[in-house]
Fold these 2 entries.
Entry 1:
Amino acid sequence: MVRRSDPKDKQKIVVARDIVAGDITIDLNERKASRIGDLPPGMEKLIGKETIDLGNASLFYQTKAEIVAEMLPDFVEKRADSIYQLNGAFAPWFLANLPVCARGFDLQPADCLADCLFRMGEHWAKIDYGERPTHFPLHEQLLQDTWSGIEERWKLFFQSGGGPAGEYWLHTLRKDGSLGPWSDSNPRQVRIGLFFNTDVNGPPSAVVRIEGEAAVTLMRLWMELKRSAEGGIDQQVRVIAETVLTSVLHDLKVNLKLKHPSKGRPAATLDSELVAYLLDHKKKTLPQVASQLSQLPRDPIERKLYFDRIKKAKINFYERLRKNLRALLPVK
């Protein structure tokens, strides 16, 4: 959200608290943020008045930047030689928040800049192109009003001995972060629970509870995020944590009868982000990626099919980014 700091002073604007801590004053002539904190070494030379140079970014990060230009054409425009033009209110907002966004990532300057363009472009869509703040105060009375129409049935449910307001389901955590059938002999046991607030005098709430090795995975991610000011976030930790959350959500849908479980033998899944990262950023070959993900099939036909799955997984990752960003765009 962008608001004028002084209606009489057209040379200054203030960027509201979106993804940064505190307000930032920007000089529209200089397009520089007047906050403490410098850009990572080598990044400043890639930034023009309202342009950024992503020519040296890897294909992985360049593709993410291209998706932003594709989805937000009014604010980001790709020019020749991977020069990106930033337009409208997005330009000063991006430049102001860039030092915070880029802090702590162990990436090459162009890769980091491209990744920030994607993440901040995604955030720009979430806040309706800067037209609304990201945080809305939730008043207690407003939340309590949502009990209307269910409060009496909720009371009767407990008075009639309707059972506990929630349930646990048992699983085993696989090495890739997905959930498998429960085994009492496996130390990587996981409990997934869904519980509801039973106090009708307070706001209604539902809590998803994760216990065991899956929780440890998320704790690792949380610690990585908190220390990111000192070092980069480990890619493998991020990928496994995303797999854990995806598996937990899938399990909840199955147990709540919102989704049917897979029939027959479950198909092996590939981590599409890791595949795209290895191919387009690390520039690994298909056999190298296949060997890193699992044992490379010896049979030529099986090997070709596995390579096709790897290439398809990469395509699916970028398509998922497009789909997710498109879903965030404000309705015109």
Note: The chain is about 40% helix and 15% strand.
Entry 2:
Amino acid sequence: MISAKVETILARCMVDSEFLQRFADNGAAALDEYRLDEKLRREFAEIDVGRIKGLAALITKVQLNGLWQHLRFTRTLLKLQGIEPQIFIAYRAEHQQNRAGQGVCRKEQTRRFITFLDEYIASRSGPQYAAIADVLHHERFVWEIGTYAQEHAAGNGASTEAESMHLTSITPSEFWRSVPEIRGLLRTQRFTYDVSALVERISASDPSPPTDCPGAVLAYWFDPSVHSLRIFEVDDLSEAILNSVNGCRSVRAIVDRVNRTEAVFVERRAVRDFLAESINAGLIVLRPARRRSSGVTT
């Protein structure tokens, strides 16, 4: 029959990640506070700590079941590659903190786990982790934009279009001082592998990365005019410009920033042409230059 002390120690391993790690590192020292007799100490010394960690990881995974609808392919790939247990062992401490906190909603729980997983995978190297990062980024952006869409009523884009400047009605000086702004929500990502090919392999229970299908830079955009997600490929210059548009920088400041951060010099005409195409597509609107209290424009 299992004694009350044994049950207490095993239960603590399930809820106290720091204690479990101390027990794994030095079981004898971790158990000092319990004043166990020699028989129990010997029994604990023979316990397979890996199995206890595995059970703790399983509990964490079950408690996070509500999040997997957003990360279906990521989860499948973690399972296929056999690294799912170590993910949940690593996340156990943060998960316990989240459960102890007040008012942590499901959306925030999802955001925190995705952020943890993103950082965990980024700290590893190799093709298998690059594939996980790709599918995670894809599903993360789809989730983020889906959440954004739920929070914004359809038709919000109409009012921003009405306030937008038009290239045909402004002078060159006004254009370079104007401030581009993204309509809706935009995310860009440079993928190692082709996401479609990667998802196909995961669906076929094949965990190997599609090394014969290199990735591209994809843009994930919530288009408020039709209230839907659009995914499209962009080139390096387009990515650099889009990542510089923050609703505060002027066109001139964006050109200067791209030229500072990119290896090639960007001509102003190329930026103007790209912005014109983006405005016509409804991706970007132009705002007049903002004036500071001193009267100096940005």
Note: Residues 127-151 form the longest helix (25 residues).
